[in-house]
Design brief:
Helix content is 88%, strand content 0%. The protein has one domain (10-41). The protein is an all-alpha fold and 42 residues long.
Length: 42
C-alpha cells in the first residue's frame, strides 16, 4: 500500500507541481500548501 502510494505520488507530483504553479498565479498560498504536504509525505 505504502509503496503503491509512494509510486503514485512520485508520478503525480510533477503534475501537481505544474497545476499548483498555474493556480499559484491566483492562489499564492496553494504552492506553499502543497509544498508542505509533499515535503511531509516524501
Amino acid at each position: 500500500m505504502l509503496k503503491h502510494l509512494t509510486t503514485f505520488e512520485s508520478s503525480v507530483t510533477p503534475l501537481l507541481g505544474t497545476y499548483c504553479y498555474r493556480e499559484g498565479n491566483s492562489r499564492a498560498g496553494q504552492d506553499l500548501f502543497w509544498s508542505d504536504i509533499l515535503s511531509s509525505v516524501l
